[in-house]
Amino acid sequence: MIIAKQVISSIIEEKKKNNKEPSIASFTEIQSVVIQSLKSEINELCKTGEIDKHKTLNGWAFSITETTN
To answer: Would you list the DSSP string of 32-67?
Structure first.
């Protein structure tokens, strides 16, 4: 799960480490980190078979994999 405060903190720390100013996290930078994290999580869920990926006209859609008992 993504925690907003942790994302902001990591962006700021990375900027301080690289002596970049201003050492603040813009909304765009936060969005970028969150989107990348979400993509990674979705890819992992697809690999483990927990969700199914479906091609649509405009991109991709996902569903929860149905299990047979």
So the answer is: HHHHHHHHHHHHHHHHTTSEEEEEETTEEEEEEPPP
d(CA 3, CA 30): 11
Query: To 5 degrees, how large is the angle CA 31–CA 41–CA 69?
Result: 145
Q: pTM for the full model? A: 0.77
Indicate the residue type of 1.
M
Other Cβ atoms less than 10 A from the Cβ of 25: the count is 19
Task: Per-residue pLDDT tens, the chain, 69 aa: give them.
Answer: 568 999 999 999 999 999 999 999 999 999 999 999 999 999 999 999 999 999 999 999 999 998 765
